[in-house]
């Protein structure tokens, strides 16, 4: 008798977040996740058909996935007006005679009714749990739509055990229908770039090796304002020797933070903000040139930059909030993200205590080796089989 878990699953994968034409050139965490599944699911036993929501129905704006027959807004409106009878049909997109999908995997909040089972990845509940961190425009409507969308999925995947509590509390998802699949890190992060390539990138951006590094979109939950305060509280000799390098585009409610960064630079502080970096190779080089990675986030569903830093051989200091201790598993120095003095102390330790630095580097590499996209893909396909067998 054949083992059902051994058969190839034909899955439609949402790749909207991996469309660089829609994301300004650089992929955020959702885009990295979608792209990684697209690349690694086939080796784990899935036939993957990528689909993307075309803004305004304009199929010319998507290239990673084939355009779905309706825009997300159109599909959502149809679902609201005719909730019991409307389902998204993708057979026409796949072509006449194509076998039907076994299921569809929505990799972000864009979840609509399909003519097959739907698995959805919900990364966190930030807009609902912390509306003060999000742009107010249409926030209530968007939150309501997300809650409704989450309940359309037959099963939910999330990146950490911490996130389960949030999804149950704020989305009303049945805990029995949630599986945890930790995210991974791409293999190339473990390969140190050549000194020549690294130094060329650093010189291009005016960086001196050994800096404190942060990577992430500038928005309130990333807590970069306190990171800047913590850096400015370091002794002048340490600030002179080590830059603070912030890599990330401005996001929600970031105007005040941007003004603070610019003011620090105008005062002659050793602060560099790279707001438009979109090249993955350059980002890899910038990680490799760091003396310490500092991730002070107030809230993360997983926290991919943490693992990228681990794999890059950079010692890490991170906040002790939400999912981050689960991801770090003791491989990073942890601090209270609301305490600027604790953050400053952690940065000082990683700059001056070689024994602690070396311990964190070794532990971080070991932790990163446990978090691969191959393993994430295998676990994701196991979820598909579970859904199809129930």
Automatic annotation (TrEMBL):
Tagged with keyword Transferase:
yes
Q: Which GO terms describe its molecular function?
A: glycosyltransferase activity
Q: What is the lineage of its organism?
A: Bacteria, Pseudomonadati, Pseudomonadota, Betaproteobacteria, Burkholderiales
GO process terms (BP):
lipopolysaccharide biosynthetic process
Name of the protein: Glycosyltransferase
Native source organism of the sequence: Rugamonas rivuli
Superkingdom of origin: Bacteria
Annotated Glycosyl transferase family domain residues: 208-367
- The Glycosyltransferase subfamily 4-like N-terminal domain sits at 28-188
- Keyword Iron listed: no
Give UniProt keywords alphabetically. Transferase
């Amino acid at each position: 008798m054949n083992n059902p878990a051994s058969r190839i699953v034909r899955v439609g994968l949402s790749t909207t977040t991996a469309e660089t034409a829609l994301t300004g050139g650089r992929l955020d965490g959702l885009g990295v996740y979608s792209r990684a599944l697209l690349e690694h699911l086939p080796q784990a036993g899935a036939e993957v058909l990528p689909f993307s929501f075309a803004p305004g129905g304009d199929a010319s704006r998507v290239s990673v996935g084939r355009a779905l027959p309706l825009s997300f807004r159109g599909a959502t409106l149809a679902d609201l007006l005719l909730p019991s009878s409307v389902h998204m049909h993708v057979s026409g997109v796949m072509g006449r005679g194509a076998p039907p999908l076994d299921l569809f995997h929505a990799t972000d909040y864009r979840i609509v009714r399909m003519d097959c089972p739907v698995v959805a990845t919900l990364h966190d509940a930030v807009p609902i749990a912390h509306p003060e961190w999000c742009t107010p425009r249409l926030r209530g409507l968007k939150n309501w739509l997300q809650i409704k969308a989450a309940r359309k999925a037959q099963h939910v995947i999330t990146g950490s055990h911490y996130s389960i509590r949030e999804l149950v509390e704020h989305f009303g998802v049945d805990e029995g229908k949630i599986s945890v699949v930790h995210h991974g890190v791409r293999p190339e992060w473990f390969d140190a770039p050549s000194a020549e390539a690294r130094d060329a990138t650093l010189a291009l951006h005016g960086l001196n090796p050994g800096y404190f590094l942060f990577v992430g979109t500038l928005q309130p939950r990333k807590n970069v304002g306190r990171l800047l305060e913590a850096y400015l509280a370091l002794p002048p000799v340490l600030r002179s020797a080590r830059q603070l390098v912030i890599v990330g585009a401005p996001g929600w409610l970031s105007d005040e933070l941007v003004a603070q960064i610019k003011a620090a630079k105008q005062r002659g502080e050793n602060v560099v903000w790279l707001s438009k970096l979109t090249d993955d190779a350059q980002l890899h080089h910038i990680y490799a040139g760091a003396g310490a990675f500092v991730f002070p986030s107030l809230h993360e569903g997983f926290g991919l930059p943490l693992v990228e830093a681990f794999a890059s051989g950079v010692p890490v200091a991170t906040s002790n909030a939400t999912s981050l201790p689960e991801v770090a598993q003791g491989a990073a120095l942890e601090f209270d993200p609301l305490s600027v003095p604790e953050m400053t102390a952690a940065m000082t330790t990683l700059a001056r205590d070689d024994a602690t630095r070396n311990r964190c580097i070794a532990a971080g590499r070991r932790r990163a080796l446990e978090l691969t996209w191959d393993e994430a893909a295998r676990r994701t396909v196991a979820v598909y089989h579970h859904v199809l067998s129930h």
